[in-house]
Write a structure and sequence with these properties.
Layout: E1 2-5, E2 14-17, E3 20-27, E4 31-38, E5 41-48, H1 50-54, H2 61-66, E6 72-76, E7 79-84, H3 94-104, E8 110-112, H4 117-127, E9 131-133, H5 138-150, E10 156-158, H6 165-170, E11 173-177, H7 182-186, E12 190-192, H8 198-233, H9 239-258, H10 260-266
Parallel strand pairs: 8-9, 10-11, 11-12
Antiparallel strand pairs: 1-2, 3-4, 4-5, 5-6, 6-7
Helix pairs in contact: 8-9, 8-10
Length: about 270
């Protein structure tokens, strides 16, 4: 059942359509379009952004008045029916995550969003982020990320929407949440299973500690081999002692690796 409430009428008019969904199409970054047949009549319905919905509206004067209020608009058979005002609630851990990144990430932090300028500017102000872009299509986000990568910058993208999937695939590291769309998860390098943005900071800590442990293990192995191989070649070491020291070398590397989780939490 689809219920429309016409806008800018002194008496609210409601129309209920109970019919068959003939077609449905999602246009990334714009909205959805569907065809519904009810009581022998066909209804072409559009729900989405201002620009996307305006394309099929014959008289958009009332819609222009609502443009500053709503962000999701509804049209049927070329007639404007009204809007929804949807507001995203910031995750509780967003501010803490941004603070952590601003202290430890040397490069800039940016917001790429398809929302309106007003909405994005408010979010950026709350999070103390100076660089942000609004009203972006998926291809716009992709172009911005490509330009950053062409300027030799390492790009880490965090997103969970279907529109973010091309950018997640393009970025050096794509991060999404477990509740993200299947397409975004498939194009991500890292999925935060706890659905918390705090996992971004944990990922940075673990990656730094993991890189250090790998280097330490390589150095330990090289030291053992550089000392023991010449001694064995010159006959100063018994084969059994060589085997013992090689086993100790492997155990040292394993022990250092098993301490990875503890070292990351301590850091």
């Amino acid at each position: 059942m689809i219920i429309f409430r016409r806008a800018h009428l002194q008496e609210t008019v409601s129309e209920e359509l109970v019919g068959e969904l003939v077609s449905f199409q999602e246009i990334p970054g714009s909205g959805v379009e569907a065809q519904v047949v009810s009581s022998g009549h066909s209804y072409q319905i559009r729900v989405g952004s201002y620009e996307f919905t305006k394309e099929v509206i014959q008289d958009s004067k009332n819609m222009a008045v609502d443009a500053a209020l709503g962000n999701v608009f509804v049209a049927a058979n070329g007639e404007y029916f009204g809007y929804w005002l949807l507001e995203d609630r910031l995750r509780e851990e967003s501010y803490q995550t941004i603070q952590y990144l601003q202290k430890r990430v040397t490069q800039d932090i940016r917001i790429f969003s398809g929302d309106s300028q007003q909405v994005v500017s408010q979010i950026a102000a709350k999070l103390n982020i100076k660089d942000y872009m609004a009203n972006l299509k998926p291809q716009d986000k992709l172009q911005h990320v490509k330009r950053l990568m062409q300027s030799n910058k390492k790009v880490v993208m965090v997103g969970d929407g279907m529109n973010d999937s091309p950018v997640l695939a393009q970025a050096d590291v794509g991060i999404s949440l477990q509740v993200a769309s299947a397409l975004s998860i498939g194009n991500s390098d890292l999925v935060l299973l706890q659905n918390s943005l705090l996992g971004v900071g944990k990922a940075i800590r673990y990656s730094k500690v993991t890189s250090r442990v790998i280097k330490e293990n390589i150095i330990l192995s090289l030291c053992y081999n550089c000392i023991m191989l010449p001694l064995a070649a010159m006959g100063y070491m018994l084969p059994v002692l060589c085997a013992l020291f090689m086993t100790l070398s492997s155990l040292t590397v394993l022990a250092n690796t098993f301490l990875l989780s503890w070292r990351a939490r301590k850091k």
